[in-house]
Amino acid sequence: MSRHEQHSSEEQILAQLREQLNPNKLPRHVAIIMDGNGRWAQQQGKPRIEGHRVGVESVRAVVEAAADIGIQALTLYAFSSENWKRPALEVQALMAILVEYLKREVKTMNANNIRLSTIGRTGELPERARKALEKTIEATSRNTGMTLNLALNYGGQNEILDAVKKIVYDVRDKQFNIEDLSADVFVRYLSTAHLPELDFMIRTSGEMRISNFLLWQLAYAELYVTPILWPDFRKPQFYQAILDYQQRLRRFGDVREQTQ
Ligand code: IPE
Ligand code: IPE
Ligand code: MG
């Protein structure tokens, strides 16, 4: 098969998958644990960092695929509060890749009406990363399409603790009575308050764990774990995952399917 033929058959597969999608049953908010970059590189006999570099191509593809079908919010787990434990060189490389990604993608984000936001303790990131984030958030703040939400120095337990602290301060400052604290109030103190409810969580590389991601928000999200490593997860794999989501019966504890 020539390169051109291969390209057009990939396009055909993508178009077929897209046709199968039900536009009335899309998850509003999708989150992804982008895992397996290191193993992908190892399999090719390359340094782990090469896996992160190729992983950025998957980020590009999936962001475009999600925006294309009208997903409202996409949260990507890019750096966890535990990832600081990695060798300093790998952490530095991840930060450099982030800065480069933001610089390169701001135009595409604007062209696709995508707004950038972050969750996690971003104040603790290196200055270059903080500056690039601030700039890109500002440059895309007037966009009204999909929100691309990057989880950076994010940990679900820290997020809950930060929310509890704010609540305690607000109770002290008499913003509300402790008896009025409910789940609906609590979610307004989480860093995802600006996003629709989480419907679907994807994890690549086959690990059956949450790794401190979106602990509160995952309560009734549908889960999808694929053995595919992140650098190999592109548009067709993303649409395949969404198709899987559309087959699910969400009951939320009831006996019949609930349409939220
Ligand atoms: C995910 O891939 C990327 C980040 C955590 C930033 P990994 O680097 O965790 O790859 P594996 O899991 O070691 O293969
Ligand atoms: C989760 O992956 C964090 C990100 C994808 C950013 P990890 O590779 O850090 O998770 P564990 O160590 O396998 O749980
Ligand atoms: Mg990993």
UniProtKB/TrEMBL annotation:
<feature type="binding site">
    <location>
        <position position="86"/>
    </location>
    <ligand>
        <name>substrate</name>
    </ligand>
</feature>
<dbReference type="GO" id="GO:0000287">
    <property type="term" value="F:magnesium ion binding"/>
</dbReference>
<feature type="binding site">
    <location>
        <position position="48"/>
    </location>
    <ligand>
        <name>substrate</name>
    </ligand>
</feature>
<feature type="active site">
    <location>
        <position position="35"/>
    </location>
</feature>
<feature type="binding site">
    <location>
        <position position="52"/>
    </location>
    <ligand>
        <name>substrate</name>
    </ligand>
</feature>
<feature type="binding site">
    <location>
        <position position="35"/>
    </location>
    <ligand>
        <name>Mg(2+)</name>
    </ligand>
</feature>
<feature type="active site" description="Proton acceptor">
    <location>
        <position position="83"/>
    </location>
</feature>
<feature type="binding site">
    <location>
        <begin position="36"/>
        <end position="39"/>
    </location>
    <ligand>
        <name>substrate</name>
    </ligand>
</feature>
<protein>
    <recommendedName>
        <fullName>Isoprenyl transferase</fullName>
        <ecNumber>2.5.1.-</ecNumber>
    </recommendedName>
</protein>
<feature type="binding site">
    <location>
        <begin position="209"/>
        <end position="211"/>
    </location>
    <ligand>
        <name>substrate</name>
    </ligand>
</feature>
<dbReference type="GO" id="GO:0016094">
    <property type="term" value="P:polyprenol biosynthetic process"/>
</dbReference>
<feature type="binding site">
    <location>
        <position position="222"/>
    </location>
    <ligand>
        <name>Mg(2+)</name>
    </ligand>
</feature>
<dbReference type="InterPro" id="IPR018520">
    <property type="entry name" value="UPP_synth-like_CS"/>
</dbReference>
<keyword id="KW-0808">Transferase</keyword>
<comment type="subunit">
    <text>Homodimer.</text>
</comment>
<feature type="binding site">
    <location>
        <begin position="80"/>
        <end position="82"/>
    </location>
    <ligand>
        <name>substrate</name>
    </ligand>
</feature>
<feature type="binding site">
    <location>
        <position position="203"/>
    </location>
    <ligand>
        <name>substrate</name>
    </ligand>
</feature>
<comment type="similarity">
    <text>Belongs to the UPP synthase family.</text>
</comment>
<dbReference type="InterPro" id="IPR001441">
    <property type="entry name" value="UPP_synth-like"/>
</dbReference>
<feature type="binding site">
    <location>
        <position position="40"/>
    </location>
    <ligand>
        <name>substrate</name>
    </ligand>
</feature>
<dbReference type="InterPro" id="IPR036424">
    <property type="entry name" value="UPP_synth-like_sf"/>
</dbReference>
<keyword id="KW-0479">Metal-binding</keyword>
<dbReference type="Pfam" id="PF01255">
    <property type="entry name" value="Prenyltransf"/>
</dbReference>
<dbReference type="GO" id="GO:0045547">
    <property type="term" value="F:ditrans,polycis-polyprenyl diphosphate synthase [(2E,6E)-farnesyl diphosphate specific] activity"/>
</dbReference>
<comment type="function">
    <text>Catalyzes the condensation of isopentenyl diphosphate (IPP) with allylic pyrophosphates generating different type of terpenoids.</text>
</comment>
<keyword id="KW-0460">Magnesium</keyword>
<feature type="binding site">
    <location>
        <position position="84"/>
    </location>
    <ligand>
        <name>substrate</name>
    </ligand>
</feature>
